Amino acid sequence: MVPTGTEETVCRLVREYSDMLLRLACTRLSSVSDAEDAVQEVFLRLLAAPVSFRDAGHEKAWLIRTTLHRASDIRRQAEKRNLPLEEAAQTAAPEPGTDLLQAVQALPEKYGAVIHLHYYEGYSTDEIAQIPPISRNSICVHILWNGMGKQKILE
User: Fold this and answer.
1) Domain, as residue range, for 100
2) Distance of alpha carbon 104 from alpha carbon 28, whole angstroms
3) CB 2, CB 59: distance < 8 Å
């Protein structure tokens, strides 16, 4: 069992996984600050309520799954609220050259996470299938389907 909940352990996890988790959260959220909040809340959750992991693989899978869930929660909350006009005007314009990121963000959630983990993080289909309970065949179909769809989006 890998112990968590200590400041030292959480600091190690932040060093190891924060960049990857932030990129993953950015694929689900339109704001970098919301993505940062999602990742920060995942690490705070570890400090507040320690989780026992079987091994490093389980640790990483838990972080990915929890980040995806938290990003989904934030996205749903954002869709429910209306921004005042002044606040909406201060929202930053998207960075140039983010067409691919926007295309991934536009995908349904179940496809976007798989595409990000496979193409951006280098996970194999077997590794992705262990994170959320999805069969390897479904993962392959998501990747193939999105590979064909990506061509249409970018044309």
Assistant:
1) 94-155
2) 8
3) yes
What is the DSSP secondary structure assignment for residue 2, as one 8-state letter? B
Task: Write the Ramachandran bin of 97: left for phi over 0, alpha for psi from -120 to 50, otherwise beta.
Answer: left
Q: Give the burial string for 36-60 (b: 16+ CB within 10 Å, else e).
A: bbbbbbbbeebeeeeeebeeeeebb
**Number of domains within the chain:** 2
- Final residue belonging to a domain, choices 92, 107, 134: 92
Residues 112 and 46 placed together within one structural domain of the fold: no
Query: pLDDT tens digits for the chain (155 residues)?
Result: 555 667 788 888 899 999 999 999 988 888 889 999 999 999 888 888 778 888 888 888 899 999 999 998 888 887 766 556 566 555 554 454 566 667 766 777 767 777 777 777 777 777 777 775 666 666 666 666 555 554 444 44
How does DSSP classify residue 84?
Answer: -
Domain of residue 127, CATH code? 1.10.10
Contact 63, 12 (CB under 8 A): no
CA angle 35/41/45 to nearest 5° reads: 150
